Amino acid sequence: MKLLVTGGAGFIGSNFIHYWLEKYPNDKIINFDFLTYAGNLENLLDVERDKRYKFIKGDIRNKHDVEKALTGVDILVHFAAESHVDRSLYAAGDFITTNVLGTQILCEVAVKLKIKHFHYVNTDEVFGALPLGTKTKFREDMKFDPRNQYSASKASAEHFIRAYYHTHNLPMTISYCTNNFGPYQHPEKLIPLFITNLLEGKKVPMYGDGLYVRDWLYVKDHCRAIDLVLKKGIVGESYMIGAQHKEVNNLELTRKILKLLGKSDKDIEHIKDRPAHDRRYAVDWGKIAKLGWKPQYDLDHWLDKTVTWYKNNQNWWMRVKSGEYKKYYTKVYGK
Ligand code: NAD
Ligand code: TYD
């Protein structure tokens, strides 16, 4: 089996490549990635010389490059995206071109080359926000209600995928996962940002009251779920992927990180809230459970492991935090 992964140099894509090569020793995998600020080939140093792995630098918005790379591929797993909500609020252009136009080009080429399976990695954020203090959860049959430029672009892309499914029989599946955490996550996202700030002796910037709920999913559980959808998912269907633990808000999560690093509430800095900040995400993953999946990795144990990973890989995140990210950090959080 030959897979092509878009965005394989990013956080989830690189974890997926590691997962796949370990689990399926006879498969070949191509990583097609444009290496934006979020793409980092250091995430894949250990497989660089593996004969089953090939990196192609390319832009999903370039039809010619996509067609060349996809020729002879059986399965396409589409991770590549502009993925950070905060960036999308003030510079939505790349979110539209990469997330929407790039996805449409992948669909067109996948149809032309008769790719056997196209899996789109979507986000639960397309469903909008849930109220605090209720037990309501997102389900696959709910209407989209994106409330920021990132989720709007991810929702738009899905409409194109569905259009190609209906008009050209694109053999697609879709998954909506909750917030992932684990190794190789860019320190612009909450968990790695807070861990690395604390390791640098800085405070952690908490938006608003911190009572925002996310359903934290360990990245390996996400990879296992995509694997299952590729094996057993029904073409044309979509699947929610969520975590196993009880809900925690940002404040509670931050206190867990503070404790693991021997810090206290004094290291929290409450800053101005993000506009249209989605209050709560929670997903009902009953549909994928029927295929035989449930999350295996709990939050406390794997948060501890993640903190240890960032402690042991200071060179990795220090390089990521310098350069382009430094400018972005000053713009969003000030000095
Ligand atoms: P990431 O930002 O870490 O990585 C994105 C990758 O895409 C990078 O390697 C980047 O270089 C590449 N890329 C960007 N534009 C490209 C282009 N035009 N052509 C080719 N490659 C390009 O993202 P991530 O956190 O690994 O997320 C992967 C996917 O999962 C995204 O589609 C995201 O929407 C989705 N998702 C992520 C989360 C999460 O918690 N991280 C949750 C739900 C869904
Ligand atoms: P993030 O990791 O950006 O993911 P998303 O916005 O896709 O959920 O943020 C997770 C939560 O953490 C979200 O409620 C916003 C909050 N947050 C902060 O409070 N401070 C920060 O500096 C960041 C990056 C996020």
TrEMBL record:
<dbReference type="GO" id="GO:0009225">
    <property type="term" value="P:nucleotide-sugar metabolic process"/>
</dbReference>
<dbReference type="GO" id="GO:0008460">
    <property type="term" value="F:dTDP-glucose 4,6-dehydratase activity"/>
</dbReference>
<comment type="similarity">
    <text>Belongs to the NAD(P)-dependent epimerase/dehydratase family. dTDP-glucose dehydratase subfamily.</text>
</comment>
<dbReference type="InterPro" id="IPR005888">
    <property type="entry name" value="dTDP_Gluc_deHydtase"/>
</dbReference>
<keyword id="KW-0520">NAD</keyword>
<protein>
    <recommendedName>
        <fullName>dTDP-glucose 4,6-dehydratase</fullName>
        <ecNumber>4.2.1.46</ecNumber>
    </recommendedName>
</protein>
<dbReference type="Pfam" id="PF16363">
    <property type="entry name" value="GDP_Man_Dehyd"/>
</dbReference>
<keyword id="KW-0456">Lyase</keyword>
<dbReference type="InterPro" id="IPR036291">
    <property type="entry name" value="NAD(P)-bd_dom_sf"/>
</dbReference>
<dbReference type="InterPro" id="IPR016040">
    <property type="entry name" value="NAD(P)-bd_dom"/>
</dbReference>
<feature type="domain" description="NAD(P)-binding">
    <location>
        <begin position="4"/>
        <end position="305"/>
    </location>
</feature>
